[in-house]
Amino acid sequence: MIKVLICDDHVIVRQGLRQLLAEAGDIEVCAEAADGAAAVQRLRQGGIDVLLLDIALPGRDGLDVLRQLREEWPRLPVIMLSTYPDRQYAVRSLKLGASGYLNKSADSEQITAAVRRAAGGQRFITPAVAELLANALGASADDDTKPLHELLSQREFQVFTQLAAGRSVGEIAQQLSLSSNTVSTYRARILEKTGTRNDVELALYAIRRGEGAVPATGG
After folding, report:
1. How far, in Å, CA of 49 to CA of 21, rounded?
2. ∠ Cα 127 129 130 (to 5°)
3. Residue 11: which residues within 8 A CB-CB, separation 6 or more?
């Protein structure tokens, strides 16, 4: 049996994944966690073969957690889950060492296939994500200069996508469980790094780079 840990802050999502994976026959959800700290604590107890990790977690986001996991458990298979469009986080997730990236709208066959491949030491990459990776590699080959938003930290990038969607500092603070002052600090850094002067210019920058129009709810 493949032992799975699900880390997602929504109970209904964890229950749905548990039920879906139970039908696979060779996969067992043996633990759940509502945030990154709880997931790390459970992993330290051992016995986990694959981690399903949400990106939009309270406190530390999933990409920050993934970075820590790669340091402590470099070979642990981690599949990132999100409601965000693939183009915003798929490539970043895989570059950080994720075994796969799935949108929460993925069908049951994709999810079970991803868990099995990850448990077998392989990566699970959908055709859409494969195209994104190819485009990213092509851009790197054509131009050694990274796009400005590639210089953002994981948390800055998360705030960047929210600002590009037109959300206010207060809304972002509530969504990410941060203080408004902290979000304002991130905003100032983002404007500086992207060479934009205000939220309108930032939104236009995001649209040109294909990073705009994030969904209204977190992932």
Report:
1. 14
2. 60
3. 34
